[in-house]
Amino acid sequence: MSPVWSLGAGLLLLLLWVRHRGLEAVLVHHRWVFVCLFLLPLSILFDVYYQLRAWAVWRLHSAPRQHAQRVRHIQAQVREWKNEGSKRYMCTGRPGWLTVSLRVGKYKKIHKNIMINLMDVLEVDSERQVVRVEPLVTMGQLTAHLNPMGWTIPVVPELDDLTVGGLIMGTGIESSSHIYGLFQHTCVAYELVLADGSLVRCSPTENSDLFYAVPWSCGTLGFLVAAEIKMIPAKKYVKIHYEPVRGLQKICEKFTEESKKKENSFVEGLVYSLEEAVIMTGVLTDEAEQSKINRIGNYYKPWFFKHVEKYLKADRTGTEYIPSRHYYHRHTRSIFWELQDIIPFGNNPIFRYLFGWMVPPKISLLKLTQGEAIRKLYEQHHVVQDMLVPMKSLEKSIQTFHADLNVYPLWLCPFILPNNPGMVHPKGDEAELYVDIGAYGEPKRKQFEARASMRQMEKFVRSVHGFQMLYADCYMTREEFWDMFDGSLYHKLREQMNCKDAFPEVYDKICKAARH
């Protein structure tokens, strides 16, 4: 039988099986079929298009010349909204399914959509050690652009598709954040189009109130059109040390100890159970022992969290050298560990060698094709949350995550939180060491109920003066939300800049209690 006939017969059998089981049942219980046959190839086409476009734009030097023109077009749209009577709130015209957040942005259907086609690296200023970019530049795009020049940015949040705009208007973190803080703390200036159509630049010394209020505001103070981000010299490798630790108290002590060491370029923890974890520390270097180089980003390599788990199972420490860009995007191929729920056999060596080059599927395409049944299933039986708590509350926090969710692995990422104005800052007058606890997966707690369980988690996080990342589902009331976040500067600016008729309040935009 020829290959064409074999393929045709296979597709016919697949269609008959889908018809027998029902399309919805297949998409819910055998989603890997749809993902492998359709979303993985489509994701490759997406990547190829954006990479070719970025290359062409930079080669032709068209981005800097066209940036001002594109910003004027945004200003014109805002002024048109004003001339129409300012009857509806404004929001970006980017489709909700294109964002990395799993939340469905229903507000885009009723708000005035402002088209913002800004996705280019504008300027690399080696003298100032600053890169100026447009808001839709992704982390994968930016590191690919800077690394060959010998530069990187201090905080490179994990997933390739995370955008600069999302990381500023929301937030971003990486295992270098114990030195540099959150993504917003590595930015030196923002450019925004405000509700009156004016273009404003803000920095710590210029329109400083706006500069500190923009992070976490989720696009409710203005439209970000450019950002300037610090750069640091890039090195070829990260020398990473793996250390398994057992016992919750010892895990917390070791993680805290390593997080306080500035000589560690990177600190990260993966907690595999209440009593088991692997603590990783890394140092940037240009030299490597050839026999210990692990190009973990290669498509045929094991998923990173599975690779780390081997040290725990073998109960041994280890050291290896990972190429820097591979390290920065080490969790991308498996979307941390979310992909194991979508493609259960995705880490199988046969699948990795044959199809690993197509992984991961675009999160945006997963959202676009999930359907109402899958969305409700995920909402009730799946958790994607990042809670930021003081390091001194780490042990109590892990115990609470275990009791309320029982999701493993947990991701631990330390960060220094300076006492800057804005929505998120420590309770005291000085900078404080915090930790991001990331829970991604299906809760194993028998009595888990999404709304009740997450409200319990949110209550705990507020009690220790922590914060919830706003990309995820939030169940707080308005009073609880503003108890968690400091809204004083934010509300003052919304009043001063006439934002109340132009943009919804951040709570109304992101919290379930406001959207339902």
How would you describe this protein?
By secondary structure, the chain is α+β, with helices and mostly antiparallel strands. The protein has four domains: 8-59, no CATH class; 64-233, Uridine Diphospho-n-acetylenolpyruvylglucosamine Reductase, domain 3, CATH 3.30.465; 237-372, no CATH class; 379-475, Alpha-Beta Plaits, CATH 3.30.70. 40% of the residues lie in helices and 19% in strands. The protein is built from 21 helices and 17 strands. The chain has helices at residues 3-21, 23-29, 31-60, 62-83, 139-146, 164-169, 177-180, 208-213, 248-259, 304-314, 324-328, 339-342, 349-355, 363-368, 371-381, 394-404, 450-463, 478-484, 488-496, 506-510, 512-515; strands spanning 90-92, 112-114, 121-125, 130-133, 151-152, 187-193, 199-202, 223-230, 232-233, 237-246, 266-273, 276-285, 318-323, 383-390, 410-417, 432-441, 467-468. The strands form four sheets. The protein has an eight-stranded antiparallel sheet, sandwiched between helices. A five-stranded antiparallel sheet has the order 3-4-8-6-7. A two-stranded parallel ribbon has the order 1-2. Helix 2 crosses helix 3 and helix 16 (394-404) packs antiparallel against helix 17 (450-463). The protein is globular, with a radius of gyration of 23 Å.
